[in-house]
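Incident log, structure service

09:12 report received: a user says their structure output differs between two submissions of the same chain.
09:20 pulled the input from the user's history:
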Amino acid sequence: MPGEVLRIGVIGVGRIGRVHIETIQSIKNAAVTMVADIWEEGARQVCEQYGIPKYVKDYKDLIAAADVDAVLICSPTDQHASQIIEASRAGKAIFCEKPISLNLNIIDEVCNVVEETGALCMVAFQRRFDPTFRRLQSAVTKGEIGDVHMIAITSRDPGPPPVAYIAQSGGLHCDMAIHDFDMARFITGSDIVEVFTKGDCKIDPAIAEAGDIDTSLVVLKFANGVIGTISNSRKATYGYDQRVEVFGSKGMIQSENLRPNMCTLATAESVHQDLPFNFFMDRYTEAYKVEMEEFVKCALAGSKPPCGVAEGRAATKVAMAAAASMKSNAPVAL
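09:34 re-ran on a clean worker, output below:
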């Protein structure tokens, strides 16, 4: 309703929790009324910094609070499913970071509870809300490049996260490439039906010791016949590398890396551009804002979010198939 303000409680005040809290400050019909984190000092600091009235240690207190209409779940992955279920049964609108879980049976349970309770649950895939990637998707939808033949996604981080994080992340495909699997489905408008993966450790042997890889190439087959590739690396020395190319019967559309400025300096000696952004929060600042605005709009209107638990399940299923393909050295059908 006009003039209504969505009162939001945030579970988890780590890096991504703070990103969302910062973003909400600029949304006029939303306010953070409470945060929950077992790290009391961090919760207290966030409340002081952003003028949030209250913090609690136990997330259950936040979910039960009468002055919380919507719950943002920014906790560790292994807590996502249970918190979605509890918030659903409490009648709250829900925004949850990916993935829902690293277990498909648990994700199915979450999907069933969300359906039974009629809860509004949006899964965080901020790249869907990036203006550049929306333009790519629009070109496909409108037929501007004709029948789509191929899609190529490049997604490389400027540097790997701490090995301690990698060890409990679910692996490169479920932690990092899951965004690219969702993007591939979003842009092509089709489900992925087969994956074939090659992966290795090229950057840090400690990542291999933690049971993961840092370099991956995935070949995709889509239900609508499109062929795709996704190239991932945990370390690109030149910055945050985010590029997409879609090729079709009438032409091609591609997106290049965004930089702090888009100037090109050309002299007799060289043609020079500044490096791309070096952090995902800088590259996707606008996407995070549009994503949260969309969640607030859906929560206040009681409308279906653009990416819910079904989309979260689909991307996770592809990520798991990609990891299985790498281990078996064979294509995996979904």
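09:41 both user submissions now match this output. Likely a transient worker issue. Closing.
09:42 reviewer note: The mean pLDDT is 96. The first helix runs from residue 15 to 24.
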